[in-house]
Amino acid sequence: LFGPETGLGMPTCLLCVCIGGSVYCDDTGMDQIPPLPKDTTHFYGRFNKIRHVKNTDFLNLNKLQSIDLTGNQVSGMDEGVFRSLTQLQELLLADNNIQVLPELPVTMRRIDLRNNKLVNRGLHSEGFKEMSHLEFLYLSSNNLDYVPTPLPLSLRVLHLQDNNIQSLQEDTFCDRHDRNFIRRNLEDIRLDSNPLNINLFAQAYVCLPRLPVGTPVEK
Protein backbone atom coordinates (compact mmCIF):
# COMPACT_ATOMS: atom_id res chain seq x y z
CA LEU A 1 0.00 0.00 0.00
CA PHE A 2 2.82 2.41 0.89
CA GLY A 3 5.29 1.27 -1.73
CA PRO A 4 8.60 -0.57 -1.29
CA GLU A 5 10.62 -0.52 1.93
CA THR A 6 13.35 2.14 1.99
CA GLY A 7 15.65 0.52 4.50
CA LEU A 8 15.04 3.59 6.66
CA GLY A 9 12.36 1.96 8.77
CA MET A 10 9.39 3.06 6.66
CA PRO A 11 8.07 2.48 3.11
CA THR A 12 8.83 5.02 0.38
CA CYS A 13 5.29 6.41 0.29
CA LEU A 14 5.35 7.19 4.01
CA LEU A 15 8.77 8.87 3.86
CA CYS A 16 7.72 10.66 0.66
CA VAL A 17 4.38 11.69 -0.83
CA CYS A 18 3.04 9.49 -3.64
CA ILE A 19 0.24 10.93 -5.77
CA GLY A 20 -0.69 9.00 -8.88
CA GLY A 21 2.60 8.30 -10.64
CA SER A 22 4.44 11.18 -8.94
CA VAL A 23 6.74 10.63 -5.94
CA TYR A 24 7.69 13.74 -3.94
CA CYS A 25 10.73 13.33 -1.68
CA ASP A 26 11.80 16.97 -1.51
CA ASP A 27 13.71 18.21 1.53
CA THR A 28 13.50 14.98 3.52
CA GLY A 29 17.20 14.83 4.43
CA MET A 30 17.76 11.60 2.47
CA ASP A 31 21.26 10.80 1.23
CA GLN A 32 20.22 8.19 -1.32
CA ILE A 33 17.35 7.63 -3.72
CA PRO A 34 14.72 5.36 -2.13
CA PRO A 35 13.22 2.34 -3.94
CA LEU A 36 10.46 3.75 -6.15
CA PRO A 37 7.11 2.15 -7.03
CA LYS A 38 7.18 0.51 -10.47
CA ASP A 39 4.48 2.85 -11.80
CA THR A 40 6.46 6.03 -10.98
CA THR A 41 6.36 8.58 -13.82
CA HIS A 42 7.80 11.66 -12.03
CA PHE A 43 10.37 11.60 -9.22
CA TYR A 44 11.18 14.72 -7.18
CA GLY A 45 14.13 14.44 -4.83
CA ARG A 46 15.08 18.11 -4.55
CA PHE A 47 17.06 19.76 -1.74
CA ASN A 48 18.45 16.63 -0.10
CA LYS A 49 21.95 15.27 0.61
CA ILE A 50 22.28 12.76 -2.24
CA ARG A 51 25.90 12.45 -3.37
CA HIS A 52 25.83 9.49 -5.76
CA VAL A 53 23.24 8.13 -8.22
CA LYS A 54 23.59 4.37 -8.68
CA ASN A 55 22.77 2.04 -11.58
CA THR A 56 20.15 0.33 -9.44
CA ASP A 57 18.29 3.51 -8.41
CA PHE A 58 15.94 3.55 -11.43
CA LEU A 59 16.04 -0.11 -12.42
CA ASN A 60 12.84 -1.46 -14.05
CA LEU A 61 11.09 1.93 -13.87
CA ASN A 62 9.87 1.73 -17.46
CA LYS A 63 7.30 4.54 -17.05
CA LEU A 64 9.66 7.14 -15.58
CA GLN A 65 9.44 10.41 -17.54
CA SER A 66 11.00 12.99 -15.23
CA ILE A 67 13.77 13.05 -12.59
CA ASP A 68 14.39 16.16 -10.51
CA LEU A 69 17.42 16.12 -8.19
CA THR A 70 17.95 19.89 -8.07
CA GLY A 71 19.87 21.17 -5.06
CA ASN A 72 21.60 18.03 -3.82
CA GLN A 73 25.31 17.22 -3.49
CA VAL A 74 25.55 14.85 -6.47
CA SER A 75 29.15 14.49 -7.62
CA GLY A 76 28.98 11.04 -9.21
CA MET A 77 26.56 8.99 -11.31
CA ASP A 78 27.05 5.46 -12.60
CA GLU A 79 27.49 5.42 -16.38
CA GLY A 80 24.43 3.28 -17.15
CA VAL A 81 22.04 4.83 -14.66
CA PHE A 82 19.69 6.41 -17.24
CA ARG A 83 20.29 4.10 -20.22
CA SER A 84 17.27 1.83 -19.69
CA LEU A 85 14.76 4.67 -19.13
CA THR A 86 13.11 4.63 -22.54
CA GLN A 87 10.38 7.13 -21.53
CA LEU A 88 12.62 9.70 -19.84
CA GLN A 89 12.03 13.26 -21.08
CA GLU A 90 13.21 15.54 -18.28
CA LEU A 91 16.41 15.42 -16.24
CA LEU A 92 16.82 18.29 -13.78
CA LEU A 93 20.17 18.30 -11.97
CA ALA A 94 20.85 21.99 -11.32
CA ASP A 95 22.86 23.07 -8.27
CA ASN A 96 24.98 19.96 -7.72
CA ASN A 97 28.69 19.08 -8.11
CA ILE A 98 28.54 17.07 -11.34
CA GLN A 99 31.65 16.86 -13.53
CA VAL A 100 30.69 13.88 -15.71
CA LEU A 101 27.29 13.29 -17.34
CA PRO A 102 26.34 9.67 -18.12
CA GLU A 103 24.82 8.64 -21.44
CA LEU A 104 21.22 9.83 -21.73
CA PRO A 105 18.28 8.37 -23.67
CA VAL A 106 17.45 9.94 -27.04
CA THR A 107 13.93 10.68 -25.72
CA MET A 108 15.07 13.76 -23.75
CA ARG A 109 13.13 17.03 -24.08
CA ARG A 110 14.59 19.07 -21.23
CA ILE A 111 18.02 18.87 -19.58
CA ASP A 112 18.96 21.24 -16.77
CA LEU A 113 22.55 21.11 -15.50
CA ARG A 114 22.94 24.71 -14.36
CA ASN A 115 25.48 25.47 -11.65
CA ASN A 116 27.53 22.29 -11.65
CA LYS A 117 31.20 21.57 -12.44
CA LEU A 118 30.78 20.11 -15.92
CA VAL A 119 33.77 20.06 -18.25
CA ASN A 120 33.68 19.13 -21.94
CA ARG A 121 35.49 15.85 -21.44
CA GLY A 122 32.73 14.92 -18.99
CA LEU A 123 30.15 14.98 -21.81
CA HIS A 124 29.72 12.15 -24.29
CA SER A 125 31.03 13.02 -27.74
CA GLU A 126 28.03 14.01 -29.88
CA GLY A 127 25.92 13.16 -26.85
CA PHE A 128 22.98 15.42 -27.81
CA LYS A 129 23.02 14.74 -31.57
CA GLU A 130 20.34 12.02 -31.69
CA MET A 131 17.94 13.71 -29.25
CA SER A 132 15.43 14.70 -31.91
CA HIS A 133 12.90 15.93 -29.30
CA LEU A 134 15.32 17.98 -27.16
CA GLU A 135 14.00 21.55 -26.77
CA PHE A 136 15.63 22.97 -23.62
CA LEU A 137 19.31 22.61 -22.71
CA TYR A 138 20.53 24.57 -19.68
CA LEU A 139 24.32 24.38 -19.11
CA SER A 140 25.07 27.77 -17.53
CA SER A 141 27.53 28.23 -14.67
CA ASN A 142 29.80 25.28 -15.43
CA ASN A 143 33.40 24.87 -16.66
CA LEU A 144 32.76 24.29 -20.37
CA ASP A 145 35.41 25.47 -22.86
CA TYR A 146 33.31 25.14 -26.02
CA VAL A 147 29.72 24.57 -27.16
CA PRO A 148 28.92 20.82 -27.10
CA THR A 149 28.04 20.04 -30.73
CA PRO A 150 26.32 18.87 -32.84
CA LEU A 151 23.02 20.20 -31.52
CA PRO A 152 19.68 18.70 -32.61
CA LEU A 153 17.42 20.80 -34.85
CA SER A 154 14.61 20.52 -32.29
CA LEU A 155 16.50 22.71 -29.79
CA ARG A 156 14.70 25.96 -28.84
CA VAL A 157 16.68 27.18 -25.81
CA LEU A 158 20.44 26.89 -25.18
CA HIS A 159 21.86 28.59 -22.09
CA LEU A 160 25.66 28.58 -21.77
CA GLN A 161 26.30 31.79 -19.85
CA ASP A 162 29.01 31.87 -17.17
CA ASN A 163 31.33 29.25 -18.65
CA ASN A 164 34.81 29.48 -20.19
CA ILE A 165 33.82 29.48 -23.89
CA GLN A 166 36.31 31.55 -25.92
CA SER A 167 35.41 30.86 -29.55
CA LEU A 168 32.72 29.59 -31.91
CA GLN A 169 32.99 27.62 -35.15
CA GLU A 170 31.18 28.24 -38.41
CA ASP A 171 29.23 25.03 -37.87
CA THR A 172 28.56 25.43 -34.13
CA PHE A 173 24.95 26.31 -35.00
CA CYS A 174 24.93 26.38 -38.82
CA ASP A 175 25.77 24.09 -41.75
CA ARG A 176 28.97 25.24 -43.43
CA HIS A 177 28.09 23.19 -46.53
CA ASP A 178 24.59 24.61 -46.96
CA ARG A 179 24.32 28.41 -47.06
CA ASN A 180 20.51 28.19 -47.26
CA PHE A 181 20.21 26.25 -44.02
CA ILE A 182 18.08 28.01 -41.37
CA ARG A 183 17.90 26.75 -37.77
CA ARG A 184 14.35 27.99 -37.19
CA ASN A 185 13.68 26.65 -33.69
CA LEU A 186 16.72 27.96 -31.81
CA GLU A 187 15.60 31.41 -30.66
CA ASP A 188 17.17 31.72 -27.21
CA ILE A 189 20.97 31.40 -26.94
CA ARG A 190 22.82 32.81 -23.93
CA LEU A 191 26.59 33.20 -24.16
CA ASP A 192 27.08 36.15 -21.81
CA SER A 193 29.67 35.99 -19.01
CA ASN A 194 32.07 33.97 -21.17
CA PRO A 195 35.52 35.22 -22.30
CA LEU A 196 34.02 35.52 -25.78
CA ASN A 197 33.59 38.52 -28.06
CA ILE A 198 30.51 37.47 -30.02
CA ASN A 199 31.14 40.17 -32.65
CA LEU A 200 34.13 38.19 -33.94
CA PHE A 201 32.07 35.19 -35.03
CA ALA A 202 29.41 36.56 -37.37
CA GLN A 203 29.56 33.48 -39.62
CA ALA A 204 28.41 31.34 -36.71
CA TYR A 205 25.03 33.13 -36.60
CA VAL A 206 23.96 33.40 -40.25
CA CYS A 207 21.42 30.58 -39.92
CA LEU A 208 19.85 31.77 -36.67
CA PRO A 209 16.49 33.55 -36.35
CA ARG A 210 17.99 35.90 -33.74
CA LEU A 211 21.44 36.68 -32.43
CA PRO A 212 22.76 35.12 -29.22
CA VAL A 213 22.98 37.19 -26.07
CA GLY A 214 26.65 37.71 -25.43
CA THR A 215 29.33 39.97 -24.02
CA PRO A 216 29.70 43.26 -25.95
CA VAL A 217 33.05 44.52 -27.19
CA GLU A 218 35.20 45.94 -24.41
CA LYS A 219 36.73 49.32 -25.17
From TrEMBL:
BP GO annotations: articular cartilage development; bone development
Record-annotated LRRNT domain positions: 12-42
Sections of the chain in a coiled coil: none
GO cellular component, one term: extracellular matrix
Leader sequence residues: 1-25
Any Pfam family hit: LRR_8
UniProt keyword terms in alphabetical order: Disulfide bond, Extracellular matrix, Glycoprotein, Leucine-rich repeat, Repeat, Secreted, Signal
Record's subcellular location: Secreted, Extracellular space, Extracellular matrix
Gene3D superfamilies per UniProt: Ribonuclease Inhibitor (3.80.10.10)
The keyword Magnesium belongs to this UniProt entry's keyword annotation: no
Family membership: Belongs to the small leucine-rich proteoglycan (SLRP) family. SLRP class III subfamily.
PANTHER family hit by this protein: EPIPHYCAN-RELATED, OPTICIN
Protein's name according to its UniProt entry: Opticin
